[in-house]
């Protein structure tokens, strides 16, 4: 998704793979955002269209990946519930920072790669991309 929320342009998706086998990816952030808003795993499942089981597995995996929990869950409470912990909020902020920095640093390279999708694209001998109209 672009900064303005539109789609259709080349996108960068970042997945962090940790040495302990855990990961943090776009789908995880989608579930995190939904739990933050809905305050439950079931609510997040409904909001995202991701199965309850998969949402629960994401929550469990993230809580097992880090030494501090990402979510606090309340299974015995009426209706249950879940919320993001302060560490979970920090994790989201750090991931967002990585995304912003990556997009900013890679912008010109992504534009050049995207230009090569154009049927009129002809690479220059210097290696720089250009769009040249073919007769």
From TrEMBL:
InterPro entries: Molybdate_resp_trans_reg (IPR051815), WH-like_DNA-bd_sf (IPR036388), WH_DNA-bd_sf (IPR036390). This is ModE family transcriptional regulator. It comes from the Bacteria.
């Amino acid at each position: 998704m672009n900064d303005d929320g539109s789609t259709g342009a080349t996108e960068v998706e970042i997945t962090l793979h940790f040495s302990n086998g855990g990961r943090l990816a776009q789908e995880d952030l989608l579930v995190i955002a939904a739990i933050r808003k809905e305050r439950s795993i079931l609510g997040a499942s409904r909001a995202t269209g991701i199965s309850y089981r998969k949402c629960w597995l994401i929550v469990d995996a993230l809580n097992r990946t880090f030494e501090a929990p990402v979510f606090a869950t309340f299974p015995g409470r009426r209706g249950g519930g879940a919320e993001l912990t302060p560490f979970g909020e920090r994790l989201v902020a750090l991931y967002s920072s990585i995304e912003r920095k990556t997009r900013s640093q890679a912008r010109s390279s992504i534009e050049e790669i995207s230009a090569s999708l154009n049927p009129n694209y002809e690479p220059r001998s210097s290696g720089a991309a250009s769009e040249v109209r073919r007769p």
